[in-house]
Write a structure and sequence with these properties.
2 helices, 36% helix
Length: 69
Amino acid sequence: MSRLFQFLLKLASEEFYGDVRIRFQRGKVHGQVEVHQFHLEDTLPQPDVNDPKYQQVAAEAARGVGYSA
């Protein structure tokens, strides 16, 4: 239960905007904790463009964007 509280405190400290669904069975967290986060366009989290994994995905996406009429 302490991990759940720490997670919720983290969301609160980050000014989380969204929904969290927590299932309980016999007083204990049961199954998955679902998190649905919502953003206004100007508050969308941005990636680290220097991250090699990001650069790889961006390059793959750019190759796939080629359009011929």
